[in-house]
C-alpha cells in the first residue's frame, strides 16, 4: 500500500539530504516534490494547495534543532501536516443512551458497504456492544442474501422484509426491533448505485429522516482517489455524513482518498477496511496512516498487533535470547508460527519501515519458510538448540537432508543463513543499524 506515494516523498527528502539547514532556496524544490507526490497520489487539488501552503510556512519557520538533519526536520513537518489533515486522533463510533445507537451506511455500489456493515457489527461485539443488521437494499435481492449470509457467518441477527417492502419501512421496523430487544447498535445497510443517482440520494434522505441516525457513515473505496473526494462532497452536501469508512486499503491505493475525505467534508475517517474477510476492519489512526504514507512504516500497528497475540513474558525471553545471540532454531520456529498467527507473513512484512516487497517475493518468502520448517523438523532437539553443532558435522547435515527431502547444500545454507540472521538480530537489538539493503536512509 502507498508504495508509489512513498517513493515520491522520498524524492522530496532527498532534496534536503546533505544540506546543513533548511533555507528559502533548498526548501522550494523539496516542496515541489511534496506537491507532486500528493497530486500523483490523486489527492484533491484544493486539498493539495492548502496542505502545501501550510507545509511551506511551517518548514521555513522551524527552528533548527541540534542533531536533527534538515531532511528529518522536514519529514516531521510534512508528517504533522498530514496528521492534521486527517484529523489528529481516532474518532470512535457514537454510542448513545438510551440504546440503540443508529448507524446509517451510505455509499456507491461495490464499495464494500455490505461487507463493512458486517465488519462493523463484529467490531462492536468485540467491544461488548450487541448489533442488529438491517437490509434495505431491495433493488438487488442478492444484496439481502449477502447480508443474511454474512450475519449467519458472524452470528449477528439480520432484519429484513424481503425485496417487496419499502426501504424506509424496513429501516423503521429494524430500528424498532432493536429498541424492543435492547440491542445496543443497529446498522442499516442501504442500496448503492454505480454512480451518484438522485433517486438513491432521495431514498437515503428519507431513510435518514425516518430513523434519525446517530452516525451516517459514507463507505468510500480507497482505490478511487479524486473521485472519492467528489463523492464525499456530494454525499455530505446532500445527506450529511458524520464519518467515513475507507475500504480496500489492502489494495494498491495511491492514498488520495485517505488524505482528502476529512478536508472535503470536515468529517473523519473512522475505520479502514483491509481485506475481504469480516475481521479485516481497523480503527483509523491519522498518525499511523501518515507514517505509512511517508514510508516510515507502521511500527505502532505492528507492535499493537504483536502485543495482542504474544505473551509478553515470551517476548521478553525472546529479546534476551536475541541480545545474547542465544536465539536457536526452536525460537525461530516459534517465532515464525507466532508471526503466522498474527496474520499473513506478507501483510506483516509490508508494515515494516522501508520494506519494499512485491507479491512474487512474498510468495517466495513463504515457500522459503516452509523449506526451513521442513529441515528444522528433521533436526534433533539438541541440534535445534545448538545450530552450530550442525555446521560442524557432515553426518548431521546428511541426516537432516535425508529426513527433510532436501540436499546437503540446502541444510548448509539454512544453518549459514541462520547464523547470519542471529548476528544481525543481535546487532539490531543492541541499537546498531546493520547495513541492510532496502532499509531506507533515515
Ligand atoms: P457493496 O455493493 O457496497 O455492498 O459492496 P460489497 O460489500 O458487496 O463489496 C464489494 C466487493 O468488495 C466484494 O467482493 C467484497 O469482498 C470486496 N471488499 C469489501 N471490502 C473490502 C476490503 O476492505 N478489501 C478488499 N480487498 N475487498 C473488499
Describe this structure as you would to a colleague:
39% of the residues are buried. Residues 297-304 and 434-442 have low confidence and may be disordered. This protein has 442 residues and is an alpha/beta fold. It has 3 domains: 3-86, Up-down Bundle (Four Helix Bundle (Hemerythrin (Met), subunit A)); 101-285, P-loop containing nucleotide triphosphate hydrolases (Rossmann fold, 3-Layer(aba) Sandwich); 301-429, 434 Repressor (Amino-terminal Domain), CATH 1.10.260.30. The chain has an 8-stranded mixed beta sheet, with helices on both faces. It is built from 20 helices and 8 strands. Bound molecules: guanosine-5'-diphosphate. Guanosine-5'-diphosphate binds next to helix 5.
Class from helix and strand fractions: alpha/beta
CATH architecture of the largest domain: 3-Layer(aba) Sandwich
- Enumerate the spans where pLDDT stays under 50 for 5 or more consecutive residues: 297-304, 434-442
Query: Could you give a short account of the major beta sheet?
Result: 8 strands, mixed
Number of strands: 8
Report the CATH topology name of the largest domain: Rossmann fold
The CATH class of the largest domain: Alpha Beta
Rounded to the nearest angstrom, the radius of gyration is: 26 Å
Family: Belongs to the GTP-binding SRP family. SRP54 subfamily.
Subunit structure: Part of the signal recognition particle protein translocation system, which is composed of SRP and FtsY.
Enzyme class: hydrolase
Subcellular location: Cytoplasm
